[in-house]
Amino acid sequence: MFQYYCLNPISQIGLEKFTEEFENTQDVNQAQGILVRSAAMHDMELSNNLLAVARAGAGVNNIPLDKCAEKGIVVFNTPGANANGVKELVIAGMLLAVRDIVGGINWVESAKDNADIAKATEKEKKRFAGTELTDKKLGIIGLGAIGVKVANVAKHMGMEVYGYDPYVSVDAAWNLSRDVKHALNVEEIYETCDIITIHVPLLDSTRGMINKEAISKMKDGVILLNFARDLLANEEDVLEGIKEGKIRRYVTDFPNPTTAGAEGCVVIPHLGASTEESEDNCAKMAVKQMMNYLKNGNIINSVNYPNCDMGICSQAGRVAIFHKNIANMITKFAACFGDEGINITDMMNKSKGEVAYTMIDIETAADAEIISKLQAIKGVFRVRVVK
Ligand SMILES: NC(=O)C1=CN([C@@H]2O[C@H](COP(=O)(O)OP(=O)(O)OC[C@H]3O[C@@H](n4cnc5c(N)ncnc54)[C@H](O)[C@@H]3O)[C@@H](O)[C@H]2O)C=CC1
Ligand SMILES: O=C(O)CCC(=O)C(=O)O
Q1: d(CA 246, CA 261)
Q2: Order of strands, sheet of 355-362, starting from the edge strand that comes earlier in the sequence
Q3: Tell me, what's the pLDDT at 32?
Q4: What pLDDT does 35 receive?
Q5: What are the pocket residues of ligand 2 if the criterion is a CB atom closer than 6 Å to any ligand atom?
Q6: Which of 145, 190, 272, 277 would bridge 83 by S-S if both were Cys, CB 3.0 to 4.6 A apart?
Q7: What is the pTM of this model?
Q8: Does residue 127 contact residue 68 with C-beta atoms inside 8 Å?
Q9: What's the mean pLDDT in 326-341?
Q10: Mean pLDDT, the chain, whole residue set
Q11: Would the CB of 173 count as within 6 Å of ligand 1?
Q12: What is the pLDDT at residue 320?
C-alpha cells in the first residue's frame, strides 16, 4: 500500500483516479508521494519515506528541485494541463488593461443609490473609455503551452502577434499559428509591441528580466501582462515606469505588497489556473504520473529526473537507481548483480544534466546485500526496490 499526502487542496476528480493500492495520509512523514499546487516546500523537512512530489500545475519554483534530486525524490509537473485556463484569463487581462472595466464597475458600485444612475452613466462613462485590441501588436515572451495558446487566440482577435522563445519545442512550433511573427531577440518584442505578455518559467536566467533597462526599450504607453511569476519583473521598476507614463498598465496574477492597490496595476489573486477544468486536468495528470512512478518506477514529465519508461515489470524484480551522471556507473551496477549470479533481463539508463536514472529488471528478486552494495557505489543517491 502506498500513501500520499496533499499539501494543497487537490481536485476530487483527480484523487478519485487513485486505485486501491493508494491511500491518503494525514501524516506527511509517512507519505511516499506528495501532491502540491503552490505551497512553498523549500523549508520543508523531506522524510526518507518520500519518493515523489507531483505538482498539479506548471511552475515548480515552490519546490527544492536540486535537494529532491540528491535525495532521489522525483518531482513531476503537469505540462499544459492548465494552459487553457491561463490563456482565457490572459485575454481577460488584456481587456481589463485597454478598457477601464474595473474603474467603471467601481463607479457603478459607488453610485448604486443614485436614482438618476442611468443619466449619470452617460455623463461619467467617458472617464472609463479605452482602446481596442484589433490591429495592436502583441508580443509574447515564451511560446510554451500557454504562450502558444495566447498567440493563436490573439491572431483570431485580429492582433498582430510577435513571439520570442529561443528554446521553443517542436510540439509548440507545430501548434503555433504560422501568422505569428518570429522575433529573433527579446529587444524586437520590446521595441515593436504595444502589449507584452510574459510566459516563461521563473529561473535564475529569467528572474527580474522585466527591469528598468528592458522597460526603457519599450514603446511609450506599453501594456505589460504577467501571468507567469511576479519575480520575473522588477516591480519597483514597473511602478516607476507607470509613474513616468511609460507603462500604461501592468496586469499581474501575483498580488504582493508592491503591486496590490498600486496606481496603474490590475492585480488578480493568482486565478490563472483556478478553473474546474484546469484543476481537474492537473490533478488527473499528477495522480496518473505519481501512480505509474510509485508502482512501476516509470518517470514521465519529471522536472528533475529524465523520462524513463519500461512499462509494467513482468520479471521477478525491478530495481531503480538514482545517481550522478558520470562514467562507469552501469558497469558497476551490472557487476553487483553478476557477482550474485543474477541475470539482468532488461535495463534503461537516462540522464538529465548532472543526474541519471537507471532501471534494471532481473530474473531473481534482489536481496538486501545487493541493494546495500549498489547503495555503497560512489555517486549513487538512492536505490529503490520497485518489485
Ligand atoms: N498564473 C497561473 O496560474 C499560472 C502560471 N503559470 C506560469 O507560467 C509559466 C509558463 O507556463 P507554461 O506555458 O505552461 O510552461 P511551458 O514550459 O510550456 O513554457 C515555457 C516556455 O518558456 C520558454 N522560455 C524559457 N526561458 C525563456 C526565455 N529566457 N525567453 C523566452 N522564452 C523562454 C521555454 O522554452 C518554454 O517554451 C510557468 O512556468 C508558470 O510559472 C503556469 C500555469 C498557471
Ligand atoms: O495551482 C495553481 O492554482 C497555480 C497554478 C500555477 O501557477 C502554475 O501551474 O504554475
Answers
A1: 19
A2: 344-352, 355-362, 317-324, 380-385
A3: 98
A4: 98
A5: 37-38, 57-59, 82, 273-274
A6: 145
A7: 0.96
A8: no
A9: 97
A10: 98
A11: no
A12: 98
Q: Give tens-digit pLDDT for 52-109.
A: 999 999 999 999 999 999 999 999 999 999 999 999 999 999 999 999 999 999 999 9
Place of cell 529569467: 206
Kindly give the distance from the C-alpha atom of residue 323 to the centroid of ligand 1, in angstroms, as a whole number.
Answer: 28
> Does 282 sit in the ligand 1 pocket, CB within 6 Å?
no
Quickly state the pLDDT bin for 383 (edges 50, 70, 90).
very high
Cβ of 141 below 6 Å from ligand 1: yes
Q: Which of 7, 11, 37 to mutate to test the pocket of ligand 2 (most atoms within 8 A of CB)?
A: 37
